[in-house]
Amino acid sequence: MQPAYAQEIAADVLLWLCAQEELLGVFLSASGADVGDLRAGLQSGAPDPGLTGAALDFVLMRDETVLEAAAALDLPPDRLAMAQAVLAGDAGRHWT
């Protein structure tokens, strides 16, 4: 998977997450972001990679959320994990 496509998936996940009222509140609490951060990150043309990566990480924490997001984005669920791996690069690899 190309990094640009992985970033596109992460941005789509963030947009999906913004439409999930209950999950969005949990994401904002967990990430330390606020609605202003979301607005700024989404209005800039290219969403902030840190914010989109955090949204992707958040969604991947629960199987149910992965399945919901993947279905809404019309992607196989493993595509979300692949995008995360590409965006994390070598920093995301570990052996424990």
Q: What's this entry about, in short?
A:
Helices cover 73% and strands 0% of the residues. It is mainly α and 96 residues long.
How are the SSEs ordered, and which strands pair?
Elements: H1 3-18, H2 21-31, H3 35-43, H4 49-59, H5 63-73, H6 77-88
Helix pairs in contact: 1-4, 1-6
Q: What does this entry look like structurally?
A:
The protein has one domain. Helices cover 73% and strands 0% of the residues. It has six helices and no strands. Helix 1 (3-18) packs across helix 4 and helix 1 crosses helix 6 (77-88). It is globular and about 30 Å long. It has 96 residues and is mainly alpha-helical.
- The helix/strand order is HHHHHH
Number of domains: 1
Terminal Cα separation, in Å?
Answer: 24 Å
Helix/strand-derived class?
mainly alpha
Q: What coarse outline follows from CA principal-axis ratios?
A: globular
Largest sheet: none
Alpha plus pi helix count: 6
> Could you list the spans in which at least 5 consecutive residues all have pLDDT below 50?
none
Share of residues in strands: under 5%
What radius of gyration results from the CA coordinates?
13 Å
Total beta strands: 0
Helix % is: over 70%
Mean pLDDT across all amino acids = 84
